[in-house]
């Protein structure tokens, strides 16, 4: 291929002649009248007209990230694995709404921990288990004064005091649903006997007969639910 030389003004809009250095043949091109910008290349349509056009592909070496919604960022120079780094001027716990990121508010967006281990300063835990099945129990045996056993009495002691005779009623499971395995202590500090009874409920005296149970004054009984409507009963002063 022969070398080409430029004849005429090639810096602006107009007609420029490219002529072979070895022959008198020439080709006329129309040059664009504006300078190209980054990311553009000078091309020809094959009919003598040159134009600047965007490059369809290539390698990005640097790029900036527009700061918005509390975020700023930068992109490293091109490498085999370019890195994108994001930073934020917002501190604390962040929340997003799909379009923006902002600081979350304690007590509104999340429950602030009450201590180093994240234990809430107050509140009630429900439906918690120790192994995925069994409910969390008490370290002690909180006191109840119910005269009819409730599901909330599980793990507690029911305390009778200041009276003479008394009766503790245990309903059927259909009336008061209580989990099998529930243990309840009964303390009789009355001056007379305490009767444990319930229609449709079986009270099995440990190593004894079934029927209503009697707890003598100053006696203590342990009630353990072993089936839907069956409780085992044992203890000092229990007959």
Descriptive key words:
mainly beta; Jelly Rolls; eight-stranded mixed β-sheet; 18 strands; single chain; rod-shaped; three-stranded antiparallel β-sheet; 239 residues; 3 domains
Beta-strand fraction estimate: 35-45%
- What is the CATH topology descriptor of the largest domain? Jelly Rolls
CATH architecture of the largest domain: Sandwich
Cα-atom Rg, whole angstroms?
44 Å
Low-confidence stretches: 4-12
**What structural class is derived from the secondary structure elements?**
mainly beta
Assign an overall shape.
Answer: rod-shaped
Per DSSP, the total helix count is 0
Largest beta-sheet characterization: 8 strands, mixed
Q: State the end-to-end distance.
A: 120 Å
CATH uppermost class of the largest domain: Mainly Beta
Instruction: Give the number of domains.
Output: 3
